């Protein structure tokens, strides 16, 4: 069943034919963005690429990146993209991350609870 829905991203009215909550145009743009980021990271000469660099370069918010990351869009590059642990400041690959924390701090936090 197709329902008319407002795109979560641009607000345009579109026919919702699947569980997707953004319109075709935004979906296509998102796909392009994901492949651009993947290509950028994979072809980067450096061994690792900081997450901030990607956010700045692609004008992306960390939430947006996270949503795509959780949707499994960056599996190929997850080991090459790094972020700073919010607690200890260690630079870690985003692949091992939970809530902006490195796996060490995430573990410690769990033990404390
Ligand atoms: Zn849209
Ligand atoms: Zn940490």
Tell me what the structure shows.
- The chain is of the alpha+beta class and 113 residues long.
- The chain has one domain.
- 41% of the residues lie in helices and 15% in strands.
- The chain has four helices and five strands; from the N terminus they run E-E-H-E-H-H-E-E-H.
- A three-stranded mixed sheet has the order 3-4-5. Strands 1-2 form a two-stranded antiparallel ribbon.
- Strand 4 and strand 5 form a beta hairpin.
- The termini are far apart.
- The structure holds zinc ion (ZN) (2 copies).
- One zinc ion (ZN) binds next to helix 1.
- The site of one zinc ion (ZN) has 8 residues, from helix 4.
Rg calculated over all Cα atoms: 17 Å
Number of self-contained structural domains: 1
Compounds present?
zinc ion
Sheet with the most strands: spatial strand order:
3-4-5
Largest sheet entry = 3 strands, mixed
| Contiguous uncertain segments of 5+ residues | none
Q: What best-fitting shape do the alpha-carbon axes yield?
A: globular
Count of DSSP strands: 5
Q: In percent, how much strand structure appears in the residues?
A: 15-25%
Structural class: alpha+beta
**Percentage of residues in helical conformation:** 40-55%
Average pLDDT level: 90
Give the helix tally.
Answer: 4
Head-to-tail CA distance between termini: 45 Å
What's the helix-strand series?
EEHEHHEEH
């Amino acid at each position: 069943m197709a329902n008319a829905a407002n795109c979560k991203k641009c607000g345009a009215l579109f026919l919702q034919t699947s569980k997707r909550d953004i319109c075709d145009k935004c979906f296509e743009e998102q796909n392009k963005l994901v492949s651009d980021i993947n290509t950028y990271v994979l072809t980067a000469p450096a061994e690792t690429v900081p997450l901030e660099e990607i956010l700045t370069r692609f004008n992306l918010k960390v939430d947006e990146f996270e949503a795509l990351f959780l949707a499994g869009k960056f599996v190929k590059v997850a080991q090459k993209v790094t972020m700073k642990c919010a607690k200890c400041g260690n630079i870690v690959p985003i692949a091992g991350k939970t809530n902006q924390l490195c796996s060490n701090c995430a573990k410690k936090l769990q033990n404390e609870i």
